[in-house]
Amino acid sequence: AHFINSENEKSSSTNASRATHYSTHLAEELQEAVAEWKLERPRTTIAVTTDKARNIVNAVNEAGLVPYIL
Fold first, then answer.
1. pLDDT given for residue 51 in this prediction
2. pLDDT number for residue 59
3. Alpha-carbon separation of residue 19 from 3, 16, 34, 44, 69 (angstroms)
4. Most CB atoms closer than 10 Å: which of 9, 40, 54, 60?
5. pLDDT tens-digit map of 25-62
């Protein structure tokens, strides 16, 4: 995952999870990443670029994020 930090620098992180790829579990992982990276902002939408895999699209929706599908 990549994001722009508060200093306008690109930051990257990986979380090599060998756990289940069910959308509910992936949604939890996404929510944890958003909190860990301090990306939450009031009245701000976080867009996520995904592939079209149904479990990823569902996870993004379940996490309260907005999917941008390539």
1. 85
2. 92
3. 23, 9, 19, 30, 24
4. 60
5. 989 988 988 888 888 888 888 888 888 889 989 999 99
Which three-class secondary structure string do you get for the chain?
CEEECCCCCEEECCCCCCCCCCHHHHHHHHHHHHHHCCCCCCCCCCEEEECCCHHHHHHHHHCCCEEEEC
Whether the Cβ atoms of residue 15 and residue 36 lie closer than 8 Å to each other: no
Tokens found for residue 44? 């701000």
Q: Tell me which residue has tokens 């301090």.
A: 38
Q: Which of the pair, 4 or 42, is modelled with greater confidence?
A: 42
According to DSSP, the residues that pair with 56 across neighbouring strands are none
- For the chain, how many residues are written? 70
* Tokens standing for residue 14: 């990986």
